[in-house]
Structure formats: structure tokens, C-alpha cells
Specification:
6-stranded mixed sheet, Rossmann fold, 14 helices, 6-stranded antiparallel beta barrel
Length: 599
């Protein structure tokens, strides 16, 4: 059986300009409604002495019926002889623009409705801007309610000229302008006698003329890792990497790379719930797979094929943003980024320009982004992430930003932003420039204490006995007469950070704080020990930078899950605790941390 082509269309426009009527008319005229639905709605209107509206066909939500406005995305399905369509009816009211972003994000083409009688409104321009931002290239403008202006060509031409001029400034080239009256059916599925001066497509003809986007299956493989499932019953040792395939296809035997960690393995099996045995997974599937070589990866990584084009990996990117948050977006405040499976703290570090979406006035000197403004800006995440730029793969370039548990902004990644210095490096440089040096230097302390300072990080998977080893090492060094202190992360969270009761438990904050404490303790000549589970390369690099100019020593217990950072000592799980402690002690001696210092 040959599957029919399917296309996603978003329809947008100012409130009450007739989007829902356009969709209702398309559903009715293409006979895509359930049998008897149209007649039952008409009968209900007659019973209640209420004029029939095609928009009523979409008014499934009580809020919509009571307020008369579309407040959420309505998905409608209809068919033509050429293809199947999913129409996304996006809200036009200014308060629901963030819902509109959700709808347009999955569209291959757009219909933008303008009321011929009311003319171009502020939201008409905003919606044009958002379509441009989200990378929708195929756009048709429907000049609706032509019956209210007696189907006058000059009214249509005036709107066409004004809106074309506007769209050209935001790099949108509409494919067509179509004069319609959705209520009366003019130019909806065929040519209207009321517009003899118009010789272009009807709405239905225009839909069928839109070109289908390149198949997502033909693009490079992308799957955000949402979770890793482990099974322990009945000797089942599978570790299933789970997520949704955004683009491309994966098959058994393919080599995959996980970014940003860079770890590689081959697909051993394709797993799915309650289905027949599978050898591949493709676009849109909620899939899982096992690997030939067990490697440690975290949720949020992006799985790609080693044989295909790679995405960008960086902690900075330049983007277009549309802000809908109640409070303005400000520099250096921590927000939450959602990009595919990534959930990551993020900061606005540079505003290149802010533009009023309705008036097209640009401001290159603004220090914040206000509600309903569009901005080109640079963001920085707390750790590098993998992403694509919108000109290459749209699915993995679109993101939303969360502020106070609400979606406050959405946008697209324009490019990976390369710079020699990120916020952390700049902070450390500034910190060291203003650091008040002690009157006692490191050599003097080493001679007095009989050892050099050191920041020792004991890491590895959970349940490997790291805390006990760290405490035993502290005791061993203390008995030997050395100045040593062990601090666990739980003490940190309940102590130094306990004043931040309104802040969620953030592992990135914990790592920053332990790194800052290490800088102070090593400056004081101490041997400072901590134990932290499941660190990755970037966590260790961050701790190393925060502790500069002093050095870090990393001891890993159990599986070595690091790809780039060089571990100082690898200990296998199961070794007797005292033997582990003695191995670390000997490393401190051989690295001359515990060398006997004499005047």
C-alpha cells in the first residue's frame, strides 16, 4: 500500500480575522467532517436562534466558546486529491502568542489571515515576524472578509503592497496573496465570480502547490537521549538508550556518537515496547537501543551517526528570540533552556539588537528584552550542548526558555558562537585580579605543614563507596599530621546554600560552590577532599578551572566514564577500603604533595 504524502500547515492572524472560519470552510468543502457533523451544528444554531458560523466546527474548548477566541493549538485533518493535511490553528490573541510558537514550530508552510475591512494589525506583523523567525519559508496571505469591502480590488492591492513591504524587511517573500471570503466560500476551493480581477490560485489550489519539505528521514540522524533504562531482574543486563528520533534513521550495526561527550559505540539491538523484532528506527518513533560496548552517557546528549554530518557543540550560540515572559529577560540571570532533550541552565550574555515586531524599530543599545519583543542575542549554557543551526536541521535548532516554571521565550539557533573566553573563564580571571593575596606564600605553608596543598576529587558511579574512602583518607592524612578536611556535597547543600530556599536543588550550583571552596582551602595550604558521583568531563574541567592557580587530583572508583579528562588514579570497585586509601596516599607521596619540607 502506497502511503499518501502529508503536510503540516499553520494558520495565523489577528484575533477575529477569520482563521477558524477559513479552517471550518476547508473542512466542510473538502467533505472532511464526520458524517452529519455540519448538519448537527447548523441545527444546534437554529435551535438556539444563533447565526451559523463555520468557526463553530472548531470550537471544542469551553473557553473558546465562552470567550469567542482561539486560545490553544487546534489540530485539524483534511484531504485533497494530492495529499493529507494537518492544519494547526494558532491563537491570534496577543496573550497567547507563546502557544502560536508551539504551532508554527512544526509547520512546513503558513497561511496568514488579514481582515480586509480592519486591515493590517499589530498582531499581523508579529505573526509575520514569528513565521520568519521559525524558518517557515512558504507563506500565503489570505485577505479575508472581502465581502465587507464589496470585493474591491483597490482594498486588496493596498493591503498586498503594505504587507509585502513589511515582509520584505524581515526576509519573508510570500508566495501569494489571495482575496477570500471564508464565510461565503469565495476563492476557497475554486475561483469566485465576485473577484473577476483576480486570476491566482484558490486557497485549496495554493495548499496543493506548496512544496513538500525534504523528508526528515533523509536528513542526518538525530535523537535526543531522554533516559537510560536499566534492567536487573532475571539476569537482564540491558541498558536501553531511549528517546524520540527527530531526523534520519538508525539501524542495527550503525556506529553512533553521543554529543557533547564524544563517546562512541555500535547499535546492538533496537528495542520497542510490545512490537515485533525491529532492525531500525526512523523519524517520529519513540525508540530505544542497546549498544555493543557499554558506555556511560547522560540524558540530554544527542545521538548522531558517526558517518554523517555532526551538529555543533558549544556553550555559546547566537539566536533569534521572541520573548513572551511576564518579566523582561535580563542579562546574567539564570533561566532554563529546553532544546530537544536538553534541560540546561542558561544566561543571556549579549543583546545584539532588539526589534519591535509591529513597528520594525531596532534598538542596538537595550539591556533587556521586554514582552513581545524580538531580539538577536547570544546565550551561554553552563556546559557545552549539542545543537544544529536552523539553516541545516530545524528540528534540533528550535528551543524554548523557561522562567519561573513558565515558558517565557522561544527561538531558533542561528550559529554556534565561538569566543576565546566564556563566562567562567572571565569570572576566574576577574577573581584572580582582585584576589587579596595572603602574606604567607605557598612554599612557606608547605615547609610549616610538611605538605603541599591539594584538591582531591573522588568520583565514579553511585554506590562505589566513595564517601567512605574519602573519609578514611581524611583520617589517614590527619593521623599522619597533615592539615586535611573532607566536605561532602550534602553538607554543602544543607549548609552554605541553605539560605537559597527558593532556589531548586541545582547540581551546577553545587559544583561551582565546591570549586570556590577548594580555591580557598588550597590557598590556605590544606588538603581538601570531596566525593561526587557521576561527574563528566566538563564537570571536572570546571572544578579544575575554579581551583586555579592550584592543582586538582582526580581519583575514579569503578567504571571510568570519562572521555577527555585525564584521571590521576583509577581504582576498581571491590578493592578493600584500606588498600584504596593506601593507593591514594602513595600517589600523594609520588606526586610530592606529601614530600617532607625542610628549611
Amino acid at each position: 500500500m502506497i502511503s499518501r504524502e502529508q503536510m503540516n500547515i499553520v494558520i495565523v492572524g489577528h484575533v477575529d480575522h477569520g482563521k477558524s472560519t477559513v479552517i471550518g470552510r476547508l473542512l466542510a468543502d473538502t467533505k472532511s467532517l464526520p458524517v452529519g457533523k455540519l448538519e448537527s451544528i447548523k441545527a444546534l444554531c437554529k435551535k438556539n436562534a444563533k447565526p451559523f458560523e463555520y468557526a463553530f466546527l472548531l470550537d471544542a474548548l469551553k473557553d473558546e466558546q465562552s470567550q469567542g477566541i482561539t486560545i490553544d493549538i487546534a489540530r485539524c485533518f483534511f484531504k485533497t486529491a494530492n495529499r493529507d493535511y494537518i492544519i494547526l490553528d494558532a491563537p491570534g490573541h496577543i496573550e497567547f502568542l507563546k502557544n502560536m510558537v508551539t504551532g508554527a514550530a512544526h509547520a512546513e508552510a503558513a497561511l496568514l489571515v488579514i481582515d480586509a475591512d480592519e486591515g493590517i494589525q499589530e498582531n499581523s506583523r508579529r505573526h509575520g515576524f514569528m513565521i520568519s523567525m521559525l524558518g517557515v519559508k512558504q507563506v500565503s496571505i489570505l485577505v479575508n472578509k472581502m465581502d465587507l469591502v464589496n470585493y474591491e480590488e483597490k482594498v486588496f492591492k493596498s493591503i498586498q503592497k503594505e504587507f509585502t513591504d513589511f515582509l520584505s524587511q524581515i526576509n519573508v517573500k510570500p508566495i501569494s496573496f489571495i482575496p477570500i471570503s471564508a464565510f461565503h466560500g469565495d476563492n476557497m476551493v475554486g475561483k469566485s465570480e465576485n473577484t473577476p480581477w483576480y486570476d491566482g490560485h484558490s486557497v485549496l489550489e495554493q495548499l496543493d502547490s506548496f512544496k513538500k519539505s525534504e523528508s526528515l528521514e533523509d536528513k542526518p540522524f538525530r535523537m535526543g537521549v531522554q533516559d537510560i533504562y536499566k534492567f536487573t531482574e532475571e539476569n537482564d543486563d540491558r541498558r536501553i538508550v531511549a528517546g524520540t528520533v527527530e531526523t534520519g534513521k538508525i539501524s542495527i550495526g550503525d556506529e553512533v556518537v553521543f554529543l557533547p561527550s564524544g563517546k562512541k559505540s555500535k547499535i546492538k539491538t533496537i528495542e520497542s515496547f510490545n512490537t515485533k523484532h525491529k532492525i531500525s528506527a526512523s523519524v517520529g518513533e519513540a525508540a530505544g537501543f542497546t549498544l555493543e560496548t557499554q558506555i556511560y552517557i547522560k540524558p540530554g546528549e544527542l545521538a548522531v551517526k558517526s558517518s554523517e554530518a555532526f551538529p555543533q557543540v558549544n556553550d555559546k550560540f547566537r539566536a533569534n528570540l521572541f520573548w513572551v515572559g511576564k518579566a523582561p529577560m535580563v542579562k546574567n540571570k539564570t533561566y532554563k533552556l529546553k532544546l530537544g532533550a536538553v534541560r540546561m541552565p542558561l544566561k543571556l550574555v549579549e543583546i545584539k539588537s532588539v526589534m519591535n515586531a509591529s513597528e520594525l524599530t531596532a534598538d542596538k543599545n537595550k539591556q533587556e528584552i521586554e514582552r513581545h519583543e524580538v531580539a538577536e542575542c547570544v546565550f551561554e549554557t553552563q556546559k557545552p550542548i549539542a545543537f544544529d543551526i536552523v539553516s541545516q536541521i530545524e528540528n534540533t535548532s528550535r528551543f524554548v526558555i523557561v522562567d519561573n516554571y513558565e515558558i517565557a521565550g522561544g527561538g531558533i539557533v542561528l550559529e554556534s558562537f565561538n569566543s576565546d573566553e566564556n563566562s567562567l573563564k572571565k569570572y576566574i580571571k576577574d577573581r584572580e585580579n582582585i584576589w587579596q593575596k595572603s602574606s604567607v606564600n605557598a612554599d612557606e605553608r608547605a615547609i610549616e605543614y610538611g605538605h603541599r596543598s591539594k584538591f582531591i576529587v573522588i568520583t565514579g558511579p553511585k554506590n562505589t563507596g566513595k564517601n567512605e574512602i574519602a573519609k578514611a583518607l581524611e583520617r589517614r592524612l590527619f593521623i599522619s599530621g597533615h592539615k586535611v578536611f573532607y566536605l561532602g556535597l550534602s553538607n554543602l547543600a544543607l549548609g552554605l546554600e541553605s539560605d537559597s530556599l527558593d532556589r531548586p536543588n541545582n547540581p551546577y550550583d553545587h559544583i561551582r560552590m565546591i570549586g570556590e571552596l577548594a580555591r580557598i582551602m588550597t590557598e590556605a595550604g590544606q588538603i581538601f577532599i570531596t566525593s561526587i558521583s557521576n561527574l563528566d568531563d566538563y564537570d571536572l574541567e570546571r572544578l579544575k578551572l575554579l581551583n586555579e592557580p592550584y592543582e586538582i587530583m582526580v581519583v575514579n572508583i569503578g567504571d571510568n566514564n570519562f572521555n577527555k579528562f585525564k584521571i590521576d588514579l583509577q581504582l576498581e570497585q571491590g578493592i578493600i577500603k584500606d588498600q584504596m586509601v593506601e593507593a591514594i596516599f602513595k600517589l600523594l607521596v609520588s606526586s610530592k604533595v606529601l614530600e617532607e619540607y625542610t628549611i
